[in-house]
C-alpha cells in the first residue's frame, strides 16, 4: 500500500487501485475489504479508482462531468472533502471551501458550482429543522417548481429560497404553473 494506491487481490489477480487517503486508511494488508470502484478508460490506459462506499464513487463520477475536471482532480476533491462536504460547498456556493482543493482556483470553483448545481443531491441538513413548506402536502409542487428553476439556470439554493419565500406568502394551494410564475416574478425582482 502506498499513500495514493493499494494493490487489491481479486480472484488471485492483483489490481492496482488509486484511492483517497481516507479510503486507504480503512484498508489493512491481508484483510478482506470491499471497495466501490470506478474504471476510467483512456486511449492508452485503464485506471481503477476505489472508494469506501458507493456514495463517494457516485460523487467522483459526477465531478468528472464538469469541464476541466478529470479523475485525478475529482479524487483530490474527495481527499479534501467528504461527499457531503462537497454537496454543501456546491449548494452554498462556497468558493473558499472548493479552492482548498489543490488545482482548483476561483474560476474552477465557480464552474463546479455552476455545472454541479443540483446534480450531487441534497446537501447535508437539507430539510432538517422546523417544519416548513418542504414538509407540507404541496412539497411535490414545491419540488417541481425548484426543478424547473434549476433547469432555467438558477442554482438550487436560489430556487429553493425563492420558492419558499413565495410559498410563505401565498400558501400551498396554487397549481404548479401559477406558483412557478409567481416565483419567477419574485426572482426577477431580486436580481
Question: How is this structure best summarized?
Answer:
The chain has 191 residues and is an alpha+beta fold. It is built from nine helices and four strands.
How would you characterize the overall build of this protein?
Belongs to the RuvA family. Keywords: ATP-binding, Cytoplasm, DNA damage, DNA recombination, DNA repair, DNA-binding, Helicase, Hydrolase, Nucleotide-binding. It comes from Spelaeicoccus albus. InterPro entries: DNA_helicase_Holl-junc_RuvA_I, Hlx-hairpin-Hlx_DNA-bd_motif, NA-bd_OB-fold, RuvA, RuvA_2-like, RuvA_C, RuvA_C_sf. Its main location: cytoplasm. With 191 residues, this protein is an alpha+beta fold. It folds into two domains: 5-116, DNA polymerase, domain 1 (Orthogonal Bundle), CATH 1.10.150.20; 133-186, Ubiquitin-associated (UBA) domain (Helicase, Ruva Protein, domain 3, Orthogonal Bundle), CATH 1.10.8. Helix content is 48%, strand content 14%. It is built from nine helices and four strands. Strands 1-2-4-3 form a four-stranded mixed sheet. A hairpin with a 2-residue loop joins strand 1 and strand 2. Helix 7 packs across helix 9 (176-190). The termini are far apart. The model is unreliable at 127-138 (pLDDT under 50).
